[in-house]
Amino acid sequence: MSKDHNPIDPILFAERADAIADAARDLAAFGWTPATSSNFSMRLNDDLAAITISGRDKGRLGRDDIMTVDMEGLPVGTEARPSAETALHTQIYRRYPNANAVLHTHSRTQSVASRLFAENGVVRLEGWELQKAIAGYTTHESVLDIPVFPNTQHMPELVAQVDAWIDSGKPLYAYLINGHGIYTWGRDMPETRRHLEALEFLLGCELDLRRLSP
Questions:
Q1: How far apart are CA 41 and CA 192, in angstroms?
Q2: Which phi-psi region, left, alpha or beta, contains residue 22 (left: φ > 0; alpha: ψ -120 to 50)?
Q3: pTM assigned to the model
Q4: 78-116, pLDDT tens digit by residue?
Q5: What is the number of alpha carbons within 13 Å of residue 52 lying toward its C-beta?
Q6: For residue 38, what is the DSSP state?
Q7: Are 66 and 39 in contact (CB under 8 A)?
Q8: Residue 197 CA: distances (Å) to CA of 111, 153, 178
Q9: Strand runs (DSSP E) across the chain, as ranges?
Q10: In 3-state terms, what secondary structure has residue 19?
Q11: How does DSSP classify residue 129?
Q12: How far is CA 146 from the centre of its chain?
């Protein structure tokens, strides 16, 4: 079990668990969470987050499929096992105090784009009107870089890669993992879902350009 932490507000937990489950069912209906993949979370307070339990069907989530972890990724008040990628969620909450939701999905578009752009290490989005769906972007006359990190089953290695990008001072609103999927976040669940849906569309546009270009 983890160290002492702020107590869990049961009403807040229920609200956040319902929001996670609602988002998961919608994203599963899009086909973005195949074979129980993907994981979703929301911040509860400075010490705790609600996150999906490992291995659950994301199209059928309810409150009992959501658990609490501390910011070290350790279970709180349960014997359930969180996602293996919990450390990537808690990293975002530690590094971005205004982030209150994290969504990670495995759509076909995200997975293919992650492989196609892995050699470059980044997907550069430029000139697309829908870049304005990302918080802080107000014009298509901007550049939005989505890094592509090498995949590994060793979570501290992935955490270190993300930390290195942030520590370099480069903006980070989302990232892909090679052959895997996308992570994005926001101030609340609606903003995070907007980011995810916009990035899915933009990645699809980039794939179409690659396919259609002579």
A1: 11
A2: alpha
A3: 0.93
A4: 889 998 899 999 999 999 999 999 999 999 999 999 999
A5: 30
A6: -
A7: no
A8: 15, 26, 19
A9: 39-43, 48-52, 66-70, 101-105, 122-126, 143-149, 174-177, 182-186
A10: helix
A11: G
A12: 13
